[in-house]
Design a protein that fits this description.
A 7-stranded parallel beta sheet has the order 1-9-2-8-7-3-4, with helices on both faces. The protein has a 7-stranded mixed beta sheet with strand order 12-11-13-14-10-15-16, with helices on both faces. Strands 5-6 form a two-stranded antiparallel ribbon. Helix 2 links the parallel strand 3 and strand 4. The two termini are 49 Å apart. The protein is built from 26 helices and 16 strands. It is an alpha/beta fold.
């Protein structure tokens, strides 16, 4: 079918499957909102109890769509894919497959992220009982093959024996009522595939099913969408292959490229209302399938490559922009957290999960202090609800205060005293928590001989709070310093992209600047990640690299200005 060019104000057939390819800043959210409103006003397929399902991939995306819909939300259900599937399929119909997986449907709690914790699971126990190596656990995923959904490990040959061991490992969680986000997808697919009546109910409730950011989908999600699309429901997908950056979560850019349905209409949006022509020229250099332009011919400053240490680059950008704010974007959580806390990353540092890195053999004390650190860092970023939820389950309840009120007191106190313990060993936080008396955990016996401390005492006295706090992962980070993945879907006036060897690995110019020198967005996800970062900028784009050769500078000087920075001087090269 021929590709049709549209823009954000275009109207299309409301009773036809559609697929829209739209570059950054094209106004795809505006188009989607207009299309939903068009369906609400003109469709004869909606009734009192029938709704439009509108799926996006982040909670921020959900809030954005709800705000733009305004009062017209009565017949629209906007949610993330996992929330939608859990609410409408897994929660009400899990009993249909509960015997097969050994799950008590009444014991299931809301889905959570799959994080391996040394303190929660004994690595020896798992290795013995389930024959699953601990380093593999974070790579567990579901895949549809031969009309069945099976567990696999990324980068490992598939064998039936290992699949059975993975199931035993998963059942350890399911017996406790814990299901992970990836389980929601697998269970939903199996329920819809095995029970036609459930599929009929979903189609009846949702005659329209629109999916934003479809390039972030994974094969199981695509299979679910195609099952729903076989009859009655109209499917619409919107996405951009160049912004597919969630391969580590199972997303596959081929799912968007190859997605098709009978009689589907194909559209493309080529405008970029967001960025200046100077920034768009960088974007067009990275990708060749769409040549964007700003309909308003919006001019601006030349993008700038700042060569030098990242923290100094931050100061330089602030000097250039004056009172204007800017957002720094980094590839890794480690870099983003370090920048936010004004800490340099040492050579060899790498990203770790706090549950894996926190070294305390007492499981109760370990759990409490991990939650304390998470709660503190969440509260610092104004995620107060999540912070209270994280901490309230650990505090002692009294006649005067429940867990949440006590947690609020603790968090408020620790935020006020943050700079007293932030740059000091964990022992300072430990002392403070002990003195508060709100938590019950085994105390660390301080040795009389300072030369022979216990392992726990040594860890708390030698590990800086600021170092361990770097490994707290914030799911919805809207701070001024965040990862590229968390900034996706957002836009900022001014962006500083920090191009640094991932997780502290030595900077390699050919790899990390490859997205500019020899771009390949079809096959190289890192190039797509950096493309997404550049496309977030409206007015000014800065790219920071630790070093650059004269040869590379010469290749890029037609597109960028250059600034070399050091701790003592700022030299401008024109």
């Amino acid at each position: 079918m021929d590709m049709q060019i549209i823009n954000s104000d275009s109207y299309i057939d409301i009773n036809q499957h559609f697929k829209v390819s739209a570059g950054p800043g094209a106004g795809k959210t505006k188009f989607l909102i207009n299309h939903i409103k068009n369906v609400l006003r003109n469709s004869e397929r909606l009734g009192r109890n029938r709704k439009i399902a509108c799926i996006t991939y982040t909670n921020v995306g959900v809030e954005t769509i709800l705000q733009r819909l305004g009062d017209e939300t009565d017949h629209v259900e906007v949610s993330t894919i996992h929330s939608f599937l859990y609410t409408h399929i897994v929660k009400p119909y899990m009993f249909l497959i509960s015997d097969k997986y050994g799950i008590d449907p009444t014991n299931i709690d809301s889905p959570c992220e799959h994080i391996v914790s040394n303190g929660y699971l004994s690595r020896t126990d798992l290795a013995t009982r389930f024959f699953v190596r601990e380093k593999d656990m974070k790579n567990v995923y579901w895949e549809v093959s031969d009309e069945t959904c099976k567990l696999h490990l990324r980068h490992r040959d598939r064998d039936k024996g290992y699949h059975k061991s993975l199931l035993k490992y998963k059942k350890f969680f399911w017996e406790k009522g814990i299901i992970h986000y990836e389980d929601i997808l697998a269970f939903s697919w199996e329920i819809l595939k095995s029970f036609e009546e459930v599929l009929r109910i979903i189609r009846s409730k949702f005659p329209y099913f629109f999916i934003d950011e479809f390039q972030d989908t994974n094969p199981i999600q695509t299979n679910i969408i195609k099952l729903i699309a076989q009859n009655e429901t109209i499917i619409g997908v919107i996405g951009d292959k160049a912004q597919s950056i969630y391969e580590f979560q199972g997303a596959d850019v081929k799912q968007f490229n190859d997605f098709s349905l009978p009689n589907i209409s194909l559209y493309r949006m080529e405008d970029n209302y967001r960025s200046t022509e100077n920034i768009i020229s960088i974007l067009n250099n990275i990708r060749k399938d769409i040549e964007q332009k700003n309909p308003l011919n919006k001019k601006g400053n030349s993008p700038v490559i700042i060569v030098g240490e990242a923290l100094q680059a931050l100061k330089t950008v602030q000097e250039i922009l004056g009172e204007q704010s800017f957002t720094s974007l980094s590839y890794s959580n480690l870099t983003a957290n370090a920048i936010r806390n004004n800490k340099p990353i040492e050579e060899g540092d790498r990203w770790k999960v706090i549950e894996e890195d926190f070294d305390d053999s007492d499981s109760k004390r370990r759990k409490i202090f991990i939650s304390l650190i998470k709660a503190i860092e969440l509260a610092r970023l104004s995620h107060y609800k999540e912070s209270l939820r994280e901490l309230s389950r650990h505090v002692k309840k009294t006649d005067n205060f429940n867990g949440e009120k006590t947690a609020l007191i603790v968090i408020k106190t620790l935020l006020n005293d943050y700079y007293e313990f932030n740059s000091k060993p964990l022992w300072f936080l430990y002392d403070k928590i002990v003195s508060m008396g709100y938590f019950q955990f085994p105390k660390i016996r301080e040795s009389k001989n300072a030369k022979v401390p216990s392992k726990a005492e040594k860890y708390y006295k030698e590990t800086l709070y600021s170092d361990i706090a770097l490994y707290v992962k914030i799911a919805e980070d809207v701070s001024l310093h965040c990862t590229i993945h968390k900034a996706k879907g957002s836009e900022f006036d001014n962006v500083l992209l920090i191009v640094k060897g991932r997780d502290g690995k030595k900077y390699i110019e050919e790899r990390d600047l490859g997205f500019l020198l020899d771009p390949d967005i079809d096959e190289n996800e890192e190039h797509r990640v950096y493309y997404v970062a550049c496309s977030r900028a409206r007015e000014n784009l800065f790219i920071n690299v630790p070093e650059i050769t004269e040869e590379t500078k010469n290749k890029l000087q037609d597109m960028f200005d250059f600034k070399y920075v050091s701790d003592r001087s700022l030299v401008t090269i024109t």
